[in-house]
Design a protein that fits this description.
The complex is a heterodimer. By secondary structure, chain A is an alpha/beta fold. Chain A has one domain (2-141): D-Maltodextrin-Binding Protein, domain 2 (3-Layer(aba) Sandwich). In chain A, 42% of the residues lie in helices and 16% in strands. Chain A has five helices and five strands. Chain A has helices at residues 2-19, 40-47, 70-80, 84-95, 109-118; strands at residues 25-29, 61-64, 104-105, 122-127, 136-141. By secondary structure, chain B is mainly beta. Chain B has a single domain (4-403), classed as Porin, CATH 2.40.160.10. The chains are: A alpha/beta, B mainly beta.
């Protein structure tokens, strides 16, 4: 328990420290995806587990960045208008109902890009500065 | 909630699904499993020694002697996925049971087939959808309160059924509609009495609007049997008297039982609110009741103060005691019947105030004070009520909830 507290405190400190570094978040999909853009509501429906279907009809494969990443907090605050605690509570309702499993957690923006580039129905978010031609931006939050 | 991916299915349920999955040639076979859990450590104490404050169905409870037993629990869950269609879930939970121990129970063990994006079929042991928060009523972290208001949730002491269900989910504009139908049965221990609710038929429908409002309506009905030697004895004795009809009314052998509820929830920006109105209808010695609750909370950063009002009313004793009061030879029999009716009077009302603090990323701390007023002459939802019980009781709880 003590261990968890220390680790959590460190994570909180890290996320506060890094949140300012990335002012913008980009929601990205596979370049071959038929999607051209999505609204904040459509993106948050997928990341809050309200739907598993992309507007294009495919079954979404959403990915998360780690809790320690400032981008994650920024994404949920800007796009879903919920705090990370609210998001976690919302997912615990779905997970412990056996209704859904949360987005696959990947270690870094590079990993997210690799996953999105390899899966036509993948959707992820990364800091805007990390966007390159391997992915397609369908939503950005400033 | 840290989900640890495991590269092979370790779930027994998933293995049994293997044969079915192999027939679906078009589907990729990409098994995976995730492990997650939730728990609560809570200390509960009251200001009376004349009765025990208990969670629904549990034996024992809290009095002026505080206890960790009322609200503490640990749940572990494994989700196994074979492919995009077939998956399975097993959830085990350890909390104080009707037998008074913490023996882990299998709360759920079901296999699921996502037949189309809209339609899911499940079979096995699943959460019984009686309430607005049926599925995650045990997950403290998922709820604002220390526990769902017992004036509503105390009316039904079981949380799962064995059987099958079908769920249809569809988005209409920005509204998500979900409809579920089920068939099954439940066997459980209600504070030492084995109860069977068979031939359950039910439905549950919800509408989630994008402005944070959720509406819910549901009903489950079935046939209830309680294995109580003392009840059977009383019914047998009455059968040999002119008051056999009273015994028939008391009897809990394959009797009609139903539970119907509507709910409304609102969660938007800093406000959260919820309300439920429920009716329990029985045709046996236990009373028919109405339970309702209303909650209002407001988020201030990591703190959420909240208030809850709730009430559990007795609508009918379901027994018309026609045994004359003035015949000395019948006095013991009448006392037996009246005693049973009185013990089934669970009417009470509650005002509660609490504070949730989202202390760490997957952990919250809550304090809650419940002020419970039993109805005149009623035991309310308290266990082991002693002579003199009847005044309002304050219940104090400190809880720590976590998920992983």
């Amino acid at each position: 328990m003590k261990c968890l507290f220390i680790r959590t405190a460190a994570v909180v400190a890290l996320s506060i420290g890094s949140a300012g570094a990335f002012a913008q978040v980009a929601v990205v999909v596979n370049p071959k995806s038929p999607l051209a853009s999505m609204t904040a509501d459509q993106v948050s429906a997928i990341f809050l587990g309200k739907t598993s279907t992309l507007p294009s009809g495919g079954t979404a494969l959403p990915t998360d960045l780690p809790d320690s990443a400032g981008t994650r907090e920024l994404f949920y605050t800007k796009v879903t208008a919920k705090s990370t605690a609210q998001v976690k509570a919302a997912w615990s309702r779905l997970v412990f109902s056996g209704k859904a499993t949360p987005p696959k957690e990947l270690a870094s923006s590079a990993e997210v890009k690799k996953f999105v580039a390899a899966n036509p129905d993948a959707i992820g978010y990364i800091e805007k500065s990390a966007v390159d031609s391997s992915v397609k931006v369908i939503f950005s939050a400033d | 909630m840290k989900i640890t991916p495991v590269r092979r299915a370790i779930l027994a349920g998933a293995c049994s699904l293997g044969a079915a999955g192999l027939h679906a040639q078009a589907l990729s076979f990409d098994p995976s499993a995730t492990f997650s859990g939730f728990g609560t450590v809570a200390y509960t104490q009251t200001d009376t020694h004349l009765g025990l404050y208990a969670a629904p169905g549990e034996a024992g409870g809290a009095s002026t002697d505080g206890t960790l037993g009322v609200d503490s629990k640990l749940g572990l869950q494994v989700n196994g996925k074979l492919n995009a269609v077939f998956s399975g879930t097993v959830q085990a939970i350890s909390e104080r049971t009707g037998a008074g121990n913490f023996k882990p129970q299998i709360d759920w063990a079901f296999a699921k087939a996502q037949v189309t994006p809209e339609l899911a079929l499940r079979a096995g042991r699943m959460g019984a959808p009686m309430f607005a928060v049926s599925d995650f009523r045990n997950v403290g972290y998922a709820n604002v309160w220390v526990r769902p208001p017992i004036d509503v949730y105390g009316q039904v002491a079981f949380s799962h059924f064995d059987g099958a269900d079908a769920t249809w989910q569809q988005s209409v504009g920005s509204t998500t509609l979900t409809a579920q139908v089920l068939y099954g049965h439940t066997d459980y221990d209600n504070n030492g009495t084995p109860i069977h609710v068979s031939r359950q038929v039910g439905f549950n429908a919800t509408a989630e609007f994008d402005n944070g409002i959720t509406l819910r309506i549901g009903r489950v009905q079935g046939k209830l049997t309680a294995d109580s030697a003392s009840l059977t004895h009383l019914v047998d004795v009455l059968a040999a008297t002119p008051y056999a009809a009273v015994g028939e009314e008391l009897s809990a052998q394959d009797k009609d039982a139903s539970f119907t509820g509507i709910g409304l929830a609102y969660d938007h920006d800093d406000w959260l609110a919820s309300a439920e109105y429920t009716k329990r209808k029985l045709s046996l010695y236990a009373a028919s009741t109405t339970g309702w609750d209303a909650t209002l909370g407001y988020r201030v950063g990591k703190f959420t103060p909240y208030a809850v009002v709730s009430q559990l009313r007795r609508d009918s004793t379901n027994v018309d005691d026609t045994i004359p009061a003035n015949v000395p030879q019948l006095a013991p029999l009448r006392a037996g019947v009246e005693g049973l009716i009185a013990s089934a009077d669970i009417a009470q009302k509650t005002d509660a105030l609490g504070l949730r603090w989202d202390a760490y990323k997957n952990l919250d701390v809550k304090v809650q004070v419940d002020h419970i007023t039993p109805a005149a002459g009623a035991r309310g939802l308290f266990n082991n009520v002693q002579p003199g019980f009847g005044a309002a009781v304050n219940v104090y709880t400190v809880a720590l909830d976590f998920v992983f």
